[in-house]
Amino acid sequence: MALLEVENLQTHFRTPDGVNRAVDGVSFHVNAGETVAIVGESGCGKSVTSMSILRLIPEPPGKIAGAIRFQGRDLLKLSDREMRDIRGNEISMIFQEPMTSLNPVLTVGRQIGETLRLHQGLSKQQAEEKAVEMLTLVGIPEPRRRVREYPHQLSGGMRQRVMIAIALACNPKLLIADEPTTALDVTIQAQILELMKDLKHRVGAAIVLITHDLGVVAEVAERVIVMYAGRKVEEAAVGPLFNDPKHPYTQGLLGSMPKLGSSLHGDEGRLAEIPGLVPSLKKKIDGCVFAGRCPKVTDLCRQVAPALEEKAPGHVAACHYAIKEGAIAA
Amino acid sequence: MFAYVIRRVLATIPVMALVALFVFSLLYLAPGDPAAVIAGDQATPQDVERIRASLGLDRPYLVRFGSWVWGILNGDMGVSIFTNLPVTTMIAQRIEPTLSLMILTLILAVTIAVPMGVVAAWKQGTLIDRAVMGFAVLGFSVPVFVVGYLLAYVFALELDWLPVQGYTALSKGFLPWLENLVLPAVALGGVYIALIARITRATMLEVLQQDYIRTARAKGAGQGSILFLHALKNAAVPIVTVIGIGIALLIGGAVVTESVFAIPGLGRLTVDAILRRDYPVIQGVVLLFSFVYVLVNLIIDLAYTLFDPRIRY
After folding, report:
1. How far is B50 from B155, CA to CA, in rounded Å?
2. Which residues pair with A211 in a beta bridge?
3. Which of B212, B217, B222 sits opposite A102 (nearest CB)?
4. Strand ranges in chain A using DSSP code E only, listed in sequence order
5. Is A99 in contact with A159 (CB distance < 8 Å)?
6. How much is the pTM?
7. B-chain residue closest to A97, CA distance
8. Out of B211, B221, B310, whose CB is closest to A101?
9. For chain A, what percentages of helix, strand and coil (3-state, to nearest 5) are there?
10. How far out from the chain centre does Cα A66 lie?
11. Residue B95 C-alpha from the chain's centroid
């Protein structure tokens, strides 16, 4: 049994001008100890998917439907009390904005200690001891001094390390990292990724990594889920996905990655891009969600939504024209 | 920090000096002559002149101001024209009821208004929120004396739960003291509660949108801890500021409230002194109120550091 099974997840928001289908029928699973990346442009529903897993979507106006089975228990059926026991304990989360994700008026030690006191019933002293330990683990120098400091006294990279310390304090089985390196500068990004990889081996947690940075995906993920307009459009192990992307959207994403020497094209030497924008999710889309921007679009695409199909072993994509391995031979 | 406290205390000196000048000048410029009031209807102009000379009112403005300030610095606020008692003595006799009323109102208002604002923000847009906001509008718009008489009518006259008016000294027991002060405190606190509740709600709404609140949820913190620890501590600075500014409301309201409930406090003393043109008393009381206001705001400035570690002096 997989650690996390998400089945037909639908997260919709009621808005004054219609229902926003931010996530519309997404299914995937995460095995214990595995790192799965969810990629896509801004507005594709990646963050909403991750927030839905911990039920951090405000309801109303949000509404989460489907099933999210964590170790066999459907999280959507738990009471608020039971859900709180899981948050920060068995599943924890790191956010994109290290500058604003820590409470400015509480000490770092208190914020790390809070999870420990909540979930492991540690005393104040024990929690502070453990907080010092966690700070050491995430590579913050002078942890004894730092536990008593406030977030504004730390740099962005240090704050993200503190967030990681908070997230890992209770040895979670699943860590959801929502663009953990986006707000950091490149050298710090590398350090944070290295730290996450290192800690993952030590703690043995599975990671769901939300990102739009394909470089990060290549570096840390084992399996990749590509999301577009609230749906999953492709899923494969990281190697096949990068070498043989099936969905035109994935191909477009990979094509728009800058590569040394070869990625500029045209007279002006522009970086490749996917024309257009993610469609509004307030209207029901007939046909393929990517049809409006797809270079290979046909009438079939505009009328009939392609189902997710296994195009190669362990490699699914939702495209009428993605060639199925072995189909030609047969 | 210590240097800052010293600097802030020193900075109150010019403020108080300005207030003193203002208070003194205001009465100097005000129409009406205390000598004429004391002399009565039958007095001749010579009588009035004699009384004026005996009160020192014929001396030049600056000389009078100088001697008044010098007296205050020596703990002497002058002698009441009307009762011939030292102003300090009169204030000392009247300060307990007013202080009791203000402190009780402050405690009552903060303990009611802050949770009210927090809950309204948490339940934004619901019936509870609207009820709180409706109450706040009511608190702002109904004058203290109307609320006062209404409360006295319902709880004292009709239901007979509490005394209609008067004051019992704290030395005669806590309960009698409290019984006499509950209605005045509620009447006086209305506007104050409305003000604090509104600002608490507005600030909390903003704080609850912050990323660190989401982090707290993701950690598994309970609703109470999120509202009262993670959010309220961040919202504290504007709330505390308003509590301080609102002290002015209490001072103004105390004068009216004491009249409605016949409490022998500084408010009544002020009103009586104004009616009698008892200048030394008016000056003394107004100066004292100003001093309290300046002091409270100093304390609040210092309190900021307790709530927000980013504020350093």
Report:
1. 52
2. A39
3. B212
4. 4-15, 18-30, 35-39, 62-70, 73-74, 91-94, 174-178, 206-211, 223-228, 231-237, 264-265, 270-271, 309-312, 315-317
5. yes
6. 0.81
7. B211
8. B211
9. 35, 25, 40
10. 18
11. 13
Residue B81 lies in a domain: no
Q: What is the pLDDT of residues B106-139, one digit of tens each?
A: 999 999 999 999 999 998 888 998 998 898 888 8
ipTM, 2 dp: 0.83
Does residue B78 belong to any structural domain of this protein?
A: no
Q: Among all chains, which residue has been given the structure tokens 């100093």? A: B298
What are the domain boundaries of chain A?
A: 1-81+213-258+271-330
Residue among B213, B218, B222, B215 at smallest CA distance from A174? B218
CATH class of domain segment(s) A1-81+213-258+271-330: alpha beta
Given CB atoms, is A85 within the 8 Å cutoff of chain B? Answer: yes
- Token pair, residue B70, equals 């010098």
B2, part of any domain: no
Residue B56, domain extent: 18-73
Average pLDDT over residues A120-137: 87
Q: How far is CA A204 from CA A61, A173, A175, A196, in A?
A: 36, 7, 10, 11
A93:B218 CB<8 A: yes
Of A22, A4, A5, A14, give the one whose Cα is nearest residue A278.
Answer: A22
Contacts of A123 (CB under 8 A, 6+ apart): A117
- The kind and range of the H/E element at B116 are helix B87-122
The CA distance from A269 to B20, in Å, is 76
Report CB contact under 8 Å: A84, B230: no
- How far is Cα B80 from Cα A275, in angstroms, rounded to an integer? 87
Domain for residue B79, yes or no?
no
